[in-house]
Each structure stands twice: as C-alpha cells, then as structure tokens.
Amino acid sequence: MTDSIFSQRGSKAELEGGRVLQPKFDENGLIAAVVTEADSGELLMVGYMNAEALKRTIDSGEAWYWSRSRQEYWKKGGTSGQVQKIVEIRTDCDQDAIWLKVKVEGNGATCHVGYHSCFYRRIEKTEDGEVVLAAPDQAPVYDPKDVYGKS
Amino acid sequence: MTDSIFSQRGSKAELEGGRVLQPKFDENGLIAAVVTEADSGELLMVGYMNAEALKRTIDSGEAWYWSRSRQEYWKKGGTSGQVQKIVEIRTDCDQDAIWLKVKVEGNGATCHVGYHSCFYRRIEKTEDGEVVLAAPDQAPVYDPKDVYGKS
C-alpha cells in the first residue's frame, strides 16, 4: 500500500539507491518507526505511523504516530510532556521502516509505565528451560499517576 | 492475535509487570523485531517474526524471521553467512515488539545492499522544502555479488 502523500513505490534499484522517499505502508497503511535517544543511542520505543503521521513528523520536527489501539493520531508527549524532538530521520534499504533519533522533552522518559525506555525487561530462560520475563532492570523514573492522573 | 506457542494475552497489569511472555502478534500473526549490534548499539535492521520464528530464535540463539515478501521462514545469514547470534532478547511494555541485541557472524554486515546497517540513508529536506533521501553515509562493506551471486 502506498499513499498519495508520498511517491509511489519504484523499482528495487530506486528504493535502495534513489533519492526519492517511497515508504512502504502495510495493508493497514502503517509503517514501523523505531525510536532511539539521539544522545545515548538507547532504544526507547517502537511506534507506527501512517502517511499523514510521517508527514507531520517530517514537517513539525516532533514525532507523531497512529495509535493502533485507539485508532487515532497520537502526538507523543501531548499529555505527558514527553515530546520527541526529531534530531534525525532515517529509512532502511527497502523503505519499509523508519528510524527516529530523538531528544525527549519533559521528564525525559518514554514509557507510560514509568521507565526511561519501553524495553525494560529481558526475555530469558529459567534453569528448567521455561521462557519468562525478567524483572525490570531499569528503575522507574517517574510515577505515571503524576503524569496521567491514573496508574 | 495470539498463538498457541505462547501464552494468551493477559491483563494490562500482567502484560506490563508480569513474568509471563505474552507477545502480541498482529492480524497477520507477526511481531516487529528491532535488531541492534550488541557491541556498538547500532540499529541494524527491522524484521518480522511469527510465533514459530520467535520460538526458533529463543531456542536456537540465532535470529529467525518470517519474510513478508517471500512468505517463508528466513534464518538471517542462511545464504550470506551474516548469522545473528543472540546476545539478549527484550520486549516492551505492552509486549508488541521484540528487541534483539546480536553479534553478526560472517562479514559482520547486515544489509543485502552491502552496507553494515540497513539504515544507511537520512531523510532530509532540501532548501526548497522538498523531502528527499540523502546519499548513503556509510561505505559499502562488501559486494552483494560476492555473497548472493547477483546484484
């Protein structure tokens, strides 16, 4: 799926080596956006954008997403103040993923649970071979109740 | 969508704070996997896994994906030797994304175009406000013809 906001998909050579942004949106019109902290390089979150959200992000210099669960545009930090100021945007070889390097405003955290990054848990195997989630290995940096008014 | 290989999705509290891996697969049965180089932290690629690919990755310690374009299981490096040895696997707050920290075998590159990372291009605006892709800012590290037998 493409969208009239961006160019239609070209040949493999154009996608991989051309100068034209031709993002590939999936059958729901979405593309994955990987978000890292520009200074530290830490992986903060993965979000999804439709063409309009990608356009808003490029134009405004602040990250916009499409919320799959709420089915609405979502400016990150609109409620929490954790606005993602864009430092750099990249795409990959076949232009089906976006990478945002950002500086986070507000309290500097990203995760609504209270952690700096949404990826606060390892997947690990116990001695018995059971696959489990480890306890969070980041300390919470804020109390979501203070930001969202509920836990 | 869930899959019988992993536990069914639980409550918000269980997903965010529990010990049970309950990955969320989309309506195509896929979950996004962000891949970074363990040593450098560099973002290498984004792939997609179905439940079986995630299980194979956890069990084997090497990254498996589901190829959306070819509709088949894909062990990264099966042809190129660029096998991704798993150093750590993480998931995010709502368990709808996977993060692999890997060590890449073979020539150490990831991208089939010849670059170390698939994200070899910035998205930028020209002085006229046109959105374009910058020229690659990584040097190619290998010639795909030598690995895949074709460009």
UniProtKB/TrEMBL annotation, chains A, B:
GO terms for molecular function: magnesium ion binding; phosphoribosyl-AMP cyclohydrolase activity; phosphoribosyl-ATP diphosphatase activity; zinc ion binding. Keywords: Amino-acid biosynthesis, Cytoplasm, Histidine biosynthesis, Hydrolase, Magnesium, Metal-binding, Zinc. Pathway: Amino-acid biosynthesis; L-histidine biosynthesis; L-histidine from 5-phospho-alpha-D-ribose 1-diphosphate: step 2/9; Amino-acid biosynthesis; L-histidine biosynthesis; L-histidine from 5-phospho-alpha-D-ribose 1-diphosphate: step 3/9. Zn(2+) binds at residues 93, 111, 118. Residues 45-120 form the Phosphoribosyl-AMP cyclohydrolase domain. Mg(2+) binds at residues 92, 94, 96. Signal peptide: none annotated. SUPFAM superfamilies: HisI-like. Its cofactor is Zn(2+); Mg(2+). Its main location: cytoplasm. It catalyses: 1-(5-phospho-beta-D-ribosyl)-5'-AMP + H2O = 1-(5-phospho-beta-D-ribosyl)-5-[(5-phospho-beta-D-ribosylamino)methylideneamino]imidazole-4-carboxamide; 1-(5-phospho-beta-D-ribosyl)-ATP + H2O = 1-(5-phospho-beta-D-ribosyl)-5'-AMP + diphosphate + H(+). One of its GO terms (cellular component) is cytoplasm. InterPro entries: PRA-CH, PRib_AMP_CycHydrolase_dom, PRib_AMP_CycHydrolase_sf. Its EC number is 3.5.4.19. Pfam families: PRA-CH. GO terms for biological process: L-histidine biosynthetic process. Homodimer. NCBIfam families: PRK00051.1. PANTHER family: HISTIDINE BIOSYNTHESIS BIFUNCTIONAL PROTEIN, HISTIDINE BIOSYNTHESIS BIFUNCTIONAL PROTEIN HIS7. In the C-terminal section; belongs to the PRA-PH family. This is Phosphoribosyl-AMP cyclohydrolase. The gene is hisI.
